[in-house]
Write a structure and sequence with these properties.
577 residues; alpha+beta; Alpha-Beta Plaits; Rossmann fold; Jelly Rolls; nine-stranded mixed β-sheet; 13 helices; 29 strands; 20% helix; globular
């Protein structure tokens, strides 16, 4: 079932048996075991509406991207259609778990006679939802500051042209806030932020307003709020990239309807991909980033010291051994190897008990092996129309009757045959346990995807207390040094933010650095677009202003660099006044 119009992981997933998909944390993403349907991302040309008569559900996005839900038996047929130019499967997303406004030079701009608070700018937080009852998101009269809340996990009444969830309007939220009892409020608007992640992120970006103590006020405290809770109603579900793309599309269409500038905050990502900005998700975000009057801000992830990336360079006739640990109780595990297609080398897999598989030559397609209680699926891919890189993918699954794969020290040996470039990168998934890691990791190129999208603003984290890079923050650059990422950093250690359920707490992670930049972008667009000072202050131009004003820390001597990018957020020096 291999087809070069499909990404390698989707080809492998289609080759896998139902049992193998069920056992894998990667191969089943987007597959409905009951309905036997696949959810896929496609780029298309021309008209594809006729597919609806074949039983395919289509969610149209901007720029001829779409999300299809189609019966498994139609996947090959749809792939081969001339209208379909490329197809990918969804990926699992995971959250990239002092007074920040002052250290980021935001305070002076809000204490001036004019004062900038993002008034009139639409700020979209695409995350785990929000505690809409928290004072941070209410006006002085108790009414909500939220224009709309789309909870993708509650079936019922989705926004027009989208297939999942329920949209709650400002009027519905206000009715819930006025309800006489918590039970009645929950009946009217049952959306909850159970993790508290989205509540904290949105609070940093735009908390405050009429009733909020200025000590805890967010950056753009008068922005119009748009909240999208990612996910689905399926038990034990996790957010997927398809849901993210729908959320971005919804945010942009809402901004166009309201005729407001838009700042989008994304505080999550994943490790699957070449990290060169070429997946359909990344290219879609690039296209949207160039649409008029919007900015997309994305966290660089928390993989800086996770030891889930290894890299090196292979010389002719050389053999290199890359060891990695798989911790106990891992239900499955995957390993990606990305290299130049001009290079050829064989692979040997070494299991914890010393069993050696290989050397395996480059045979395109899926190959299966078994070591003790672990089944191994090996897939040699081809370059895609979007990327010159070649992927070699390993999926480790428990054999029949087992719950976990073999833990211990595994190794991959690379045997050089023909070498032109020689460089290679390996990644383990970001949701792996803490004991699953490379023994000789490389902290560079640990940005999570989609923070590698070229035209987004990629934000890392630094510690304002010590004026130094936060070592967990995902580092750049993108693979092959195509783009300087992150673009800049913002405070990301012990940040005060609203807690779901009430009150405030301290949060650490790049998730909580991004909203400082998202809120700052809203302030800049307020001044430029809404005040008429610069109607073109968005996208790459706004990024250029932020980069120019970024402050350099004494801990780094060379800028830009893979840790801090061009420096740390200093909005006063970036502001074009």
């Amino acid at each position: 079932m291999n087809d070069q119009k499909r990404e390698n992981l989707l080809n492998l997933s289609l080759d896998a048996t139902t049992a193998e998909r069920a056992a894998s944390s990667s191969l089943s993403t987007g597959y409905d075991f009951t309905a036997k349907t696949w959810e896929v991302i496609v780029q298309y040309q021309g008209d594809i509406s006729f597919l609806e008569q074949e039983g395919v559900r289509i969610t149209y996005l901007f720029f001829q991207y779409a999300i299809l839900t189609l019966p498994e038996q139609l996947v090959d047929y749809v792939t081969k259609l001339p209208q379909i130019t490329y197809m990918e499967m969804p990926k699992r997303l995971f959250f990239a778990d002092f007074a920040g406004r002052s250290i980021s030079c935001i305070q002076p701009l809000q204490e001036s006679s004019q004062g900038f608070f993002g008034d009139g700018v639409l700020l979209a937080c695409i995350d785990s939802g929000v505690d809409y009852t928290h004072p941070a998101f209410r006006n002085a009269d108790g009414s909500t500051r939220i224009f709309a809340l789309w909870d993708q996990t509650i079936p019922g009444s989705p926004p027009e042209n989208y297939p999942l969830g329920t949209q709650y309007t400002r009027q519905q939220i206000n009715e819930a806030l006025s309800a006489p009892t918590p039970e009645e409020r929950n009946r009217l608007v049952p959306s909850r932020d159970t993790s508290g992640h989205g509540t904290a992120v949105l609070g940093i970006a735009a908390g405050g307003g009429g009733s909020e103590d200025s000590l805890y006020r967010g950056v753009a405290s008068k922005a119009i709020l748009l909240v999208i809770k990612l996910g689905s109603s399926e038990p034990d579900s996790f957010p997927r990239t398809t849901q993210l793309m729908m959320a971005v599309d919804y945010a942009v269409r809402t901004a166009l309807f309201l005729q407001k500038p838009l700042a989008i905050n994304l505080s999550f990502g994943n490790n699957y991909g070449s990290h060169s900005g070429t997946s359909l998700l990344e290219t879609y975000l690039n296209q949207v980033s160039r649409l008029a009057q919007n900015v997309i801000c994305i966290g660089s992830g928390n993989e800086g010291i996770s030891a889930r990336h290894a890299a090196g360079n292979l010389s002719p006739s050389e053999t290199k051994r890359i060891e990695f640990a798989i911790g106990p109780y891992e239900p499955s595990m995957s390993l990606q190897l990305w290299k130049s297609y001009t290079d050829t080398f064989d692979i040997t897999i070494v299991a914890p008990d010393g069993t050696r598989i290989g050397p395996l030559q480059s045979i395109l397609g899926t190959v299966r092996f078994r070591v003790r209680t672990t089944e191994i699926l090996l897939y040699y891919g081809m370059p895609s129309p979007h990327s010159q890189a070649q992927e070699i993918y390993l999926d480790l699954l428990p054999s029949s009757g087992q719950s976990f794969i073999n833990s211990g020290i595994w190794a991959v040996e690379l045997h050089a045959r023909t070498i032109v470039m020689g460089n290679y990168d390996l990644w383990l998934p970001g949701f792996a346990g803490t004991q699953t890691r490379f023994y000789l990791p490389d902290p560079e190129t640990t940005l999570t995807i989609p923070s590698t999208a070229r035209y987004a603003i990629t934000v890392g984290a630094y510690n304002p207390r010590f004026q130094s890079y936060a070592d967990f923050s995902g580092r750049g650059y993108t693979r092959f040094f195509q783009d300087i990422k992150p673009d800049l950093c913002a405070p990301g250690v012990d940040i005060s933010a609203p807690v779901s359920g009430g009150g405030y707490g301290a949060f650490t992670g790049t998730s909580f650095a991004v909203p400082f930049v998202t809120g700052s972008a809203a302030l800049m667009m307020e001044w430029g677009i809404l005040y008429g000072n610069d109607p073109f202050l968005y996208g790459e131009k706004l990024k250029a202003f932020l980069i120019r004003g970024a402050r350099r820390l004494p801990s780094e001597s060379v800028y830009p660099n893979p840790r801090l990018g061009y420096g740390v957020l200093c909005l006063q020096d970036s502001f074009p006044v």
